[in-house]
């Protein structure tokens, strides 16, 4: 744990950063439907990065040459967890399937937006007055839930098709040092890469890949490192779990809000290259940027599949702690976000010393 | 919908949690004033408006609705700054995990009802719906900061944006029973340029959600001869014990809680005016303000009109605005009727 200097750290608020996070967070883009976020990112990169392309899966690739030909691969994923229309029944009720890891019990009574036509609806909840005690005590399964757009017949459901993506209707809000919104996993990572690219050039060359479909098994991640030449190491930006609000004295939360960005040492997909981890920690210390470690081993990231690409790639994940991740409303901390970006830039600046 | 759209959308945005209805009371008073002779707020907070009638055999006819809504109250600030809370009125605990609330403290403070991330949640935890005392509200802040902003006893409301849905459907928190308040307001507005036969009372009651309290004192003060309560009823498309749906007009309640001659008169007016309606059978007087109004003083001729609503007591209640307009039109027609009871003979002839 390193939380030195937090008290002394001057909190300067970089508004354009928050503004970028707001735009990225609001660009509804589920796994396989990433075009909205591609548009937002492209807007930010078009004047600053010459070499922008897409690969067959849809990863958005931005290359920035540096003094050295050695490449650092930067990755973040563009997709968010969401839902998909499975069936519109005779009564105009919409059955749906989850895309990515969503706990069903957070869904009832949530506002959603369906499809490209942004049809508003709500996820229905069985009325209290005719629910049995057992029903109230047990979470419903997604197959028993439905979305109500206010229709009473199938014909009244206009602008919704089977296969449409469904997103949480969440209003991005700032409250003091805290930012409320959705999809910070991993739009925060996309913000980090865009910021790094906009601050180029560096000594090393950058190969940035904004990946698709991480939430359904790191699909974009698998192909993101395959053709990167002279690859020095891979730096993966994530939004990670932050379970610091449970009142249990013996419990170690995965990360804590306000202690800075988190390095992953080990998760279900990878054990971080020791040399790279030690080096990254030394950069953070030298730059006086607070950081922490992710202290649970659940979950996996693109870093796992990237580390097994080619004949192996040293890979590390740097994460922004996100409370209530994979849910309609999440919270991140501005101070963490700023240090996340600062640490990213510091690591790239020092990359040729790795 | 245009007839009451502005009133409805503004009222839905003014929190009126049971016991804390004052801000909404000021709004209703101000809005209904142009259409009535006088308006006042009684000791409990019921807003009562009056329009004088000129009929020879005029009666005191009351249109009643409650305007309080369910909510939450902060009960404890924990060491790490999270907030414990309890319910005001019947909260469905399934509607809570992961939702955003607005705490109505000195300033409005947002908070999330916290849940564990899926990555760290066990299968048992995922299946179980926790009781309210296990849940918490997270405003982001630590204890020192939150103590400056929120105190125990502050109330909180679901943060849900009123939303127009497909067709005439409309979704919001608090439609139970601001939908009724929209109808009663609309009745006053519809009758504003018409000489009334009866003395009309428009009553917006408080504290229905914790036991029909406001209606009790309001009815005592007004002492009406006839009373029509407007409340929401179950219009759910799935699992609904009633055969009631959205968009088919208000329900007229039949049962011992309502005067049969008065109810049949209302039905005959609906038939005559071609206003669609549905039936609701209420075998036992309970659950709405009509039940306490009926037994006020010497007794009152009561009736109940139900506005079909989906997902009652959640933040995503849905109504059909056509049903509101039809309810108001039916009430306005009743108000213009000289004879409010159907004779025994007529009743005998009802098919």
Concise summary:
Chain A is α+β, with helices and mostly antiparallel strands. Chain A has eight helices and 17 strands.
Q: What tags apply to this protein structure?
A:
heterodimer; A: 354 residues; alpha+beta; Aminopeptidase; Elongation Factor Tu (Ef-tu), domain 3; 2 domains; 8-stranded mixed sheet; 6-stranded antiparallel barrel; 8 helices; 24% helix; 25% strand; disordered N terminus; B: 351 residues; 6-stranded antiparallel sheet; 10 helices; 17 strands; 28% helix
Blueprint (SSEs and pairs):
The complex is a heterodimer of chains A (354) and B (351).
Chain A: H1 15-26, H2 35-45, E1 51-54, E2 60-64, E3 71-77, E4 82-88, E5 93-99, E6 111-114, E7 119-123, H3 133-137, E8 147-148, E9 165-168, E10 173-175, E11 178-181, H4 184-198, E12 205-211, H5 219-224, E13 231-241, E14 262-264, H6 274-286, E15 292-294, H7 302-307, E16 315-322, E17 330-333, H8 334-350
Parallel strand pairs in A: 3-12, 3-13, 13-16, 14-15
Antiparallel strand pairs in A: 1-2, 2-12, 4-5, 4-9, 5-8, 6-7, 6-9, 7-8, 10-11, 11-17, 14-16
Helix pairs in contact in A: 1-4, 4-8
Chain B: H1 5-13, H2 22-32, E1 38-41, E2 47-51, E3 60-66, E4 71-77, E5 83-88, E6 100-104, E7 108-113, H3 123-127, E8 137-138, H4 143-149, E9 155-158, E10 163-164, E11 169-172, H5 175-190, E12 199-205, H6 213-222, E13 226-234, E14 251-254, H7 260-272, E15 278-281, H8 289-294, E16 301-309, E17 317-320, H9 321-335, H10 344-349
Parallel strand pairs in B: 3-12, 3-13, 13-16, 14-15
Antiparallel strand pairs in B: 1-2, 2-12, 4-5, 4-9, 6-7, 6-9, 7-8, 10-11, 11-17, 14-16
Helix pairs in contact in B: 1-5, 5-9
